[in-house]
Automatic annotation (TrEMBL):
Listed PANTHER family: X-BOX TRANSCRIPTION FACTOR-RELATED
Species annotation: Aegilops tauschii subsp. strangulata
Positions that bind UDP-alpha-D-glucose: 17
GO cellular component: endomembrane system; membrane
Active site, UniProt feature: 17, 321
Subcellular location: Endomembrane system
Bilayer topology term: Multi-pass membrane protein
Chain positions recorded as Mn(2+) binding sites: 156, 180
Name of the molecule in the record: Cellulose synthase-like protein E6
GO biological process: cell wall organization; cellulose biosynthetic process; plant-type cell wall organization or biogenesis
Entry-linked Pfam families: Cellulose_synt
TM segment ranges: 523-544, 556-574
Amino acid sequence: MAYNYPAEKLSVYLSDDGGSVLTFYAMWEASLFAKHWLPFCKRYNIEPRSPAAYFSESYQDLCTPKEWSFIKDMYDEMTERIDTAVISRKIPEEIRSNHKGFYEWNPEITSKNHQPIVQVLIDGKDQKGVDSEGNVLPTLVYMAREKRPQHHHNFKAGAMNALIRVSSVISNSPVIMNVDCDMYSNNNDTIRDALCFFLDEEMGHKIGFVQYPQNYNNMTKNNLYGNSLHVINEVEMGGMDSLGGPLYVGTGCFHRREILCGKRFTKDYQEDWNGGIKGRIQDTSIGEIEEKAKSLATCTYEHDTQWGDEIGLKYGCPVEDVITGLAIHCRGWESVYSNPTRPAFMGLGPTTLAQTLLQHKRWSEGSFSIFLSKYCPFLFGHGKTNLRHQMGYCIYGLWAPNSLPTLYYVVIPSLALLKGIPLFPKITSPWIAPFIYAFCVKNMYSLYEALSCGDTLKGWWNGQRMWLVKRITSFLFGAIDTVRKLLGLSKMTFVVTPKVSVEDESKRYEEEIMEFGSSTPEYVIIATIALLNLVCLLGGLSQIMTGAWNIHLDAFSPQLILCGMLVITNMPFYEAMFLRNDKGKIPFTVTL
């Protein structure tokens, strides 16, 4: 709401898929706080304009201490009231009477069974919709689409499509920006920057969407779990920008409304920038608009329509954003990747190993399911996008099957070493050159990428470890689950990655100590392979040193190096199994 953009042209919508009165209450409290916060932001041109982020960084020097303390106290009081309501799980009756929206909830409502709820908390076209200084406020709308047990809700894509329809009768703006709930705006000029691409005289008419990278503000110095995505953001997404545009990653993106509604690109295309003005009938009351919007957010509205297929975000895949972006590219549109010096959006990344593996399982599983479906970039994009663009999409589609060769390389050479079976040419043989070349060049290039993108040397090493761990766990289970779904043995689910950690977990994360603490199949695989490589290395060395095989060391040098590198990579796992005593260690049942 505090963007450096005319408030009368800005509308903010929140989709609450849980249909919680507590979320509505928090939004109502935020709407009251906004009347003081927005003037404060614009008066001092502060950054960032998320109050939580701003106060955590304590920029007191930009304003008078008295005014800073006043707005900080107001924010703290608001968060305290919200926290109290969340703990008690109810809204006080005296607060309910302040807004008619609270009466939408009754004791029978659950997160999976409730009617559509649409409430306009601030109407930017109403004379009362002003801040403490009399300036117009952006329109603020709460939406909880209808959910019934007998109707599939299509996860995030269904929520996005409901938002597209609801917003069409309230503001109908020609450009839609969507941001996930765990991210916030970090640059108040982002809207203006994105519009520059759409309004470009030469290329603007070709642009379907503008994608910003995902950046996190809670990464450790050395990128413990490899979640900073520096190389993906700087190299891979930036590289796709020259091939037809980056893929749509589901957050931090500006779309033309028309392309989300299925419009194909034509050379004579011209945007109707007055669409938002014509979208709402001026003399229609808010109550009537809310009732009309509710009818667009029902479970049955999409029945026998093209929503989820030709219109809106596509259904049928855990990463619906990727196939939606691919479909947009296949309709002739291009996209633009914008990665400004000051990140446009910031969010929270996973802070435990379990969270990281869960997130990458969903990403790899969804991308692999796309690769094996009718939306495979090579098939769906054939004749519609260039081959290099299709290959760019497939980088992520092949994450999951990459688990199989990785498993081979971390298991078979080590077992062969233990059994005295050489798998590579002797270290003195010229035929070893291709193996040395591939090993050295791959690691040197990945190190160069990491360092040039802002990682530390230790951060690069942590990233290499995490790629190994993700391939033998997240990607492996992602591949298995994808095949199970294709065979009809399981159904598609949408798993939200938790981003909340308890205090001792947060402390270990800040100290860059890996978090385990529970017994899971992923940890069993990690511990098994770590111990296997340690046993094979020690066993192989003892056999060579005692001369049991009557063979020269140079025959096993490549396998010794490979197995030794794996043991060094696995050092944090050995510590978690044998040396640590905290709650985040690998449980004894897993080690056993």
